[in-house]
Design brief:
Layout (H helix, E strand, L loop, with lengths): L1 E5 L3 H13 L3 E5 L2 H8 L6 E5 L7 H10 L6 E5 L4 H9 L4 E4 L4 H14 L9 E3 L2 E3 L5 E4 L5 E3 L2 H12 L5 E2 H9 L9 H15 L5 E5 L3 E5 L5
Parallel strand pairs: 1-2, 1-3, 3-4, 4-5
Antiparallel strand pairs: 6-7, 7-8, 8-9, 10-12, 11-12
Length: about 230
């Protein structure tokens, strides 16, 4: 899972990013609302931690613009404000949860897990689901529903597989994949996406999955799965 932290207080922002990274998440930061909103619209993130008191545009406006765009990404509001009207205002605008400063990191992590479980694409035991595929974020194991055979993925394989599964049926460009898996500032080679897709195709074949990572010529890749009731 990749998380965006939009927080103008540099010390807190960097501390949150480090704590999330230590917990196995991918995390980036933005220091103002305008930059944060632009990063949200990139489609690279699975969840946003959003401060309300931000420069340029505040968190409420970021939230309003995000929902007006039809972007359903989970958003946890983070603020020093504790007034009931602020909490209600944030929830009415489409926030998924609300946490008041100061807070314990363990509480934020619990909120992240809770909000993530609400969304489509996860099972009761918190595995990521796409068609018959199941991906365990705790063990990095990929499996097929109804099959005993599983395969453990490497760190980058897991990040790419998670991205494909959370966006099953959608075309993801090589640029999107590279930024998502290797980061904005990475010097990763352009063909890294192709190499890791090849690895994942072998893993899918090993677990006898009918899912296919389809190449879209000149664009990128799409994970095609058969949905099951």
């Amino acid at each position: 899972m990749k998380i965006l932290v939009i927080e103008d207080e540099e010390g807190l922002r960097e501390a949150l990013i480090q704590s999330l990274t230590d917990e196995g998440y991918l995390a980036d930061g933005a220091e103002d609302g305008e930059t944060g909103f632009s990063m949200i619209t990139s489609g690279l993130y699975d969840l946003v931690i959003l401060d309300i008191m931000l420069p340029v545009i505040d968190g409420f406006e970021v939230l309003r613009r995000t929902r007006n765009r039809g972007i359903a990404i989970p958003i946890i509001l983070l603020t020093a404000r504790s007034a009931l009207r602020d909490k209600i205002g944030g929830m009415d605008l489409g926030a998924d949860d609300y946490l008041t400063k100061p807070f314990a990191m363990q509480e934020l992590l619990a909120r992240i897990r809770m909000v993530s479980r609400r969304g489509a694409g996860t099972t009761a035991d918190n595995r990521i689901r796409a068609g018959e595929l199941r991906l365990d974020p705790g063990t990095y194991e990929l499996s097929r529903e109804g099959e005993q055979r599983t395969v453990r993925l490497g760190a980058k394989e897991y990040q790419l597989m998670e991205y494909l599964m959370r966006n099953a049926g959608q075309i993801l460009s090589r640029e999107q994949i590279t930024e998502r898996v290797w980061g904005y500032d990475s010097e990763a080679e352009y063909n890294n996406a192709d190499v890791y897709v090849s690895f994942l195709r072998k893993k899918l074949k090993f677990i006898r999955s009918s899912a296919v990572i389809r190449a879209v010529r000149g664009v990128g890749y799409s994970l095609e799965v058969e949905e099951h009731d």
